[in-house]
Amino acid sequence: MIRPEEIKMSEEETGKWGMVINQDLCTGCQACVAACAMENNISFVGEVDSGYGRSMHWIRIERFWEGEYPEVKMTPQQPMLCQQCGHANCEPVCPAYATVHSQAEKLNLQVYNRCVGTRYCANNCPYQVRAFNWRDYKRPEPLPNQLNPDVTVRRMGVMEKCTFCIQRIHKAQDVAKSEGREVYDGEFTTACAQACPANAIVFGRVDHPESLVSQLARKGHGIKHLEELGTYPQITYFKEG
Amino acid sequence: MSDLKQHKDAAKSHEEHLREKHLMLDPLPRGKMNEMVMEAMMAPPTWKWWLVFTLLAGFVVWGLFYKWGVLITKGQGEAGVMRPDYWGIFLVNTVFWIGISHAGTFISAILRVFRSEFRRPFTRAAELMTTFGLVQAGFSIFMHMGRVWLAYWLMPYPNQRMLWPNLHSPLTWDLLAITTYVLGSTMYLFLPLIPDMAMARDRSTGWRKTFYKILALGFRGTEGEWTHLRNAMNIFAFAIIPVMFSVHTIVSWDFAAATRPGWNSTIFGPYFVIGALHSGMGAAIAVLAVIRGTMKNMKYFIRPEHFDAVGKLMLIISMGWTYFFFNDYMVQWYGGDKWTRQLLHFHEAGPLGWLWFVMLISNIAIPWAILWNQKWRSTPWLVATVGIIINVGMWIERYVIIPISVTINRMPFTWRMYTPGIEIPMGLGTVALFILLYMIASKLIPLIPVWEVQEGQMAHAFKKFGRETVVTVSELE
Amino acid sequence: MTDTKIDTKIVDVLAVFPDLEPAANAIEQLRTLGVHDDCMNVISGIPVTEAMLGRPHQWTNVPRIAMGGAILGFLGAVFLAYIAPFLYPYPIQVSTQSFIPGPPTAVVLFELTMLGMLLSTFLGVFLDSLFPNYRPMKYVPEISDGKIAILVECPHADEKKIMDALMKTGAESVRPAEAQHL
User: Fold this and answer.
1) Where are the domains of chain B?
2) Which residue in B122, B404, C20, C79 has its CB near the most CB atoms, within 10 A?
3) Model ipTM?
4) Could you tell me if C119 and C90 lie in one domain?
5) First to last CA, chain B
6) What are the tens digits of pLDDT across the range A104-116?
């Protein structure tokens, strides 16, 4: 039996894992997008569906034009991925408990095999970072050979999203446990952060004040997206300075 | 002397006039009415009936079932949904059909509770609409699901995963509310049908006799049976009203509870309920006009007075809808939130802005322009046309609220217009199935609750106040 | 069969009346002849209240059954809302909403209470009226034409007397009732 008091509200405490993204360093090279797709067995949607807004990347690089022609200005590249909200809008609306909050890792989990495909979570996500398997997409040979054995392959009708590479988190924790120590900062990182040639993405423990990600986040001029909605996002963005 | 005679004649012709106008004042022997209803029901289908039946059945098989098979095997990609329009026409249709179903309950429960006598001849026709509308709503919501074969996971049942549905989710409330409503309205359709099934059983032979015998459950009409039935119908009439309100309120919460510009509105509950009644009454009157126009003897039971009465309700409901619509619009506009402003602008001036204006014209301008006039209001084909126009308008309202509104969100990078795909044949398939079910029901079920009509006719009488002849109604229950 | 046995036999008489007034008179007449109210039954094509015919109050369990169903539905909702969340092998948390959410619980309690009530009301009609019942019953099809029939249970000895009395009060037809397939 569980007592309600055992359940802690994530609002009252800081998250565990977090990210800092420096948009001034980001070159928009899409290496993170490719690395994420490889690491997490994301389907290849193809040109037609991708052109119709069905691309399934867990991370995307956003860029806008600002102003009217001829005074147009390009905004800095903005990698957008699941913000692992502390107060996540996507979680309570799922009728099947397919997306829930992890007590141990303070992450938003997506339980693929519990998903029935109502797509309410994606609708309620203010960041629009959830990806739905609109079809069973084929993986031409020899692509199946590069599937990551640590990650489930999803079928059609299922919602998915960035997990902060939870399989890497668990692997690092298992190694640390077997060696009788804590996971140290920088021991591992997510696929997107690992692939970034400009080191624009830094991943780590936000609840350890001395971790690199915490030190960067404290620099002072970082922003969190749509913070006004009270979602408690775990990713801090830096831009112009 | 001649003055008195003149007055008497005038009074008599006044009485005649009232009789002609009102079904409740124009009683026929029960046996005659039974015969008329049975004749209307058992009339062998004409070639036109068979033609419409075949076309509709063919369309249901192709548009609904075959296309659904395609959708299930190939995935939701066959539909027009994508990011950010995760919800499309399937949910528009769900809301639309649940809206249609509300009129049946309104007519047979609310009007019953308030003892509006004009309801008597068409409570059953309206209740059938409720049940058949909910069937389409159920189909539409299942079409929407990505993995529909796992829909039973949403039901609360003990399982080895020890997982129960998430009661935090508006969709779970929806499931509970719609289940309650489907079961409740079907039972409420069946209870007053039992005596009419007994009537049909006494007047039929062959397979029909067996059919009605089974459905009449052995009803004879003893004091006990009537007492139990009347008590139950009374409980249903009162209990199903809050259920009806809760159903569409919860449907509105699917949207209002979401963190989206344009959706997160506290007035969505009543706004949706009145919208449901708006489209429902429109559909009900169209169905009545078709029944009156195509079935035998129905001109006796369904008269211009009924179109007049329902027309008045439609006008009031249209005004109520306008009030809630303006409330919703006004407060959102005044709030001035960046995203909401974008959205409102997109509604009116976006590429589909013309839809927004069609919605206002068909939900407000046309009903107001026509229904204020009693003569026009009493013209069946005209009111029915208005009813159908209102339904077009209300469908567009849901289209504006769902796929058009979700185009605009707080991440402008994802903005994208929705283009429907397989939703079109499947949506039309639900319309075809609705009409088809109604056509079959009109051949199997007495559409007029004869015993309720007779009860009403017994309760009505003329009374003289001085020289004036007026109509009185006594409460028999 | 001996004579004594015939005399103690109970027979049913079915009288069909065209209207309320003669039927009410007939019931009064029957009472003066010593027929107990329990031995009469009125069968009609529209609901006729007890008061119209001067009959004793008709007992029905439907409201009680409905209330019982409402309580069962409420208990089911209480189970789902307050007990089921504790049956999980590990705590399931969504967002920062409390473990047992407040307002959503009210929705669930309401819907399941109403569902229980509506289902049991429907069931109550079946239980109280012994539906479905396809055995042969005493009935004439004229009843669904709006006629009112009185079914009298009486000793065989009184049969003639009662039939005469019913005829005099304005019955359209009086006959010994026979159970038949409806």
Assistant:
1) 24-473
2) B122
3) 0.92
4) yes
5) 44
6) 888 999 999 999 9
